[in-house]
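Hello again,

I reread your note about wanting to compare the complex against the isolated chains. To keep things tidy I'm splitting this into two emails, and this first one only covers the full assembly. Below are the input lines as submitted, including protein chains and any nucleic acid or small-molecule components. They are followed by the predicted structure of everything together. The single-chain runs will come separately.
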Amino acid sequence: MKSKRILAALLVLFFTGLTILTWVQLRQEKKESQNEIDQKGRRLVNLISMFPLEAFSGENSNFFLRTLTESTGRDPLAYCFIHDGQGRLLVSFDRDNLAAALPNQVQVNSLNSLALIRQTFQAGRSEPYYEFSKPIHQGDRRVGTVRLGFRLPPVNLFSAERVSLMATAAFFMFVTAFLAYYGVTRAFRPLLKFTRRIGQTWAEASSEGLAGSPSGGELTRLVGGLEKSLVFIQEKISRMEEGQAELSGKLGAMTFRVKQFEKILDSVNFGIIMTDLNDNVTHVNEFWLRLLGKDRDEVLDRPLAEAVADDEIAVFAAQKWSGRQPTAGARLERAFDRVSPGETFRLTLTPIYDAEGSTIGKTIFAHNVTAEKMAERTRQEFIAHVAHELKTPLATIKSYNEMLMDGEIEDREMKKEFYNTINDETNRLAGLINNLISLSKIQMGGLSIERGLVQTDWLFNDCLAAVEAPAYDKNITLERVVPDNFPHLLGDKEMLKVAIINILNNAVKYTPEGGRIKFSLQDQGDAVVLEVADTGYGIAKDDLPHIFDQFYRSSDPNVTNQVGSGLGLAITQEIVRLHSGEIEVQSEPGRGTQFTITLPREEYQIGRT
Amino acid sequence: MAGRKGKILVIDDDAHIRRVVEVKLHSRGYSVLAAKNGLEGLEAIMTERPDVVVSDINMPMMDGETLCKETNHLKKDRPFLTIIMTSRITSDQEEWIKDMQNTIFMEKPFSPNKLLQVIEKHLAAVRR
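Full-complex prediction:
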């Protein structure tokens, strides 16, 4: 009777098990085929969208369809539609005659999406359809859309595979159930015996009047065994708990690390956006968010085109790859005038590769290149100036020389004039080259500066001597004002000479005939002050802030009528700076100009301040 | 004889350049006028109606580029040649010349003989 009940229970258990197994297997199968379709759909739609539109139009469409159906074979591909830019159908392959049954919204979504999308819908059958669609681009333009429809293959409950699997499972379950029945009855036999014996013992004990004190032997052993099992189970549980603690610790550490990386990305001074293969944003740092003027949630996990909301960047980021480089170029320079007016940013597009070398997404870096661009422009302007300044005397020398060589000049006086001009211009060229060399030496860090004791009386007289002749030619009076005792100075005498002579030369150049120049030196204890004051044309107010700029020349005719490179004062200022000194200028147009150079005597350092 | 062959205007803020062009062309029978800057040059073009203008680019008051643009419309009635003497190093700075009629570049340092040849060739073509 009892064994019959057990058998019935086992049978129920057996059929329940079989049903559960079938159900689990069906679910698994469905999931697998969904995954398979997902992978296949994405791969195929990506592949097709890479072809130019011509591959699908006219005669080519038949060839394409043949290739498609041959390569997909008995796959669950239900349909393939390729539209041109206006939404017209170029290719239509409709295995299930679904065209009419397709929900309109699916088509609208597909034709308007900016990137690959997947949609699911029901159309008559119980199993859903999956549509994968992606725009086809040519250059920057969207020229069409490819749409692929897949259906889940129908489930056959009595497929040969399933029947054989179920039969095997049934056999094993049956055998297991039988063995379990046998095993359980055997395993419980000692316990049954034991229970019987406890009963007997109790009966005997109570008949002998010993109730209340259980007989030691077997009971103690049984309790001891149970306790051992309990301890064992407890140990096992606590070990599992430890394992879980370790695991959650690891997870915490990993989350912390990800957060740390995000912090690092936020603190760098360039922008990073990362996307996955479907162009959805997976990472974005503060720098980019500032440029876009958006919050993180407005960008993260959104399609890139939507996140940046900027046509130029969206088109740039949607470039196709050929090999390691995007087809149109990996760089774009642009401004974000709303957030950083006047600055230029360089965007760089690079693919992200996985360990196997296949593309898994892309990165767009943004660098602020304003300073770089400014430096480049300054450099180009400098070179253009130098070229112009060098070529001007050269043009005179070459043309005058050609005239003399060709024997075009017969007049003796004119010949002399031509030779003199060539000589003057050669000197000018040499002077200019010297100036350029000084300037570049100074700008490279004053490598050639030689510190030494400078006797200011020698310095003063050397400078004055250099301008005596041209001043005499213009009938300009040179007035010298000096102290009784000339102080000493630490510095580079040759450099200081260049600096002061530049000022004196300018005074002579820009003072009309019959004028005066006062050159003075004062000892102020901790500093030596040199002053050059002339009664010249003076400097216009607009020009005053620029006179120390390289190559700056006033447009005043009194200046342009004189030869000059626009380098003299720039060099003077650099030399004074290297001596930790100061240079000042005061000027009144029509009255004259006064330059004051103050050079500290003590505690000065050679170097930039 | 001077003046019969044609009237040349040289505009340059560098006196040496004005001088050498003057001497060279004068000896070949041209009448040569000189101007020190673009503004003086513009005035001379209006009043003296030269056949050829030889002009520098970097000049005070008005530079060569502005001068060219200011006088371009005159060339419809009077096809005078403008020779721009430039010492700039990159030609991409000189894109503007493409929009100018009858205007060419000559690089500095230049050869007076080459300048003469260009002028003679132009005048011969105009007078044919």
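For quick reference: Chain B is about 40% helix and 20% strand.

B.
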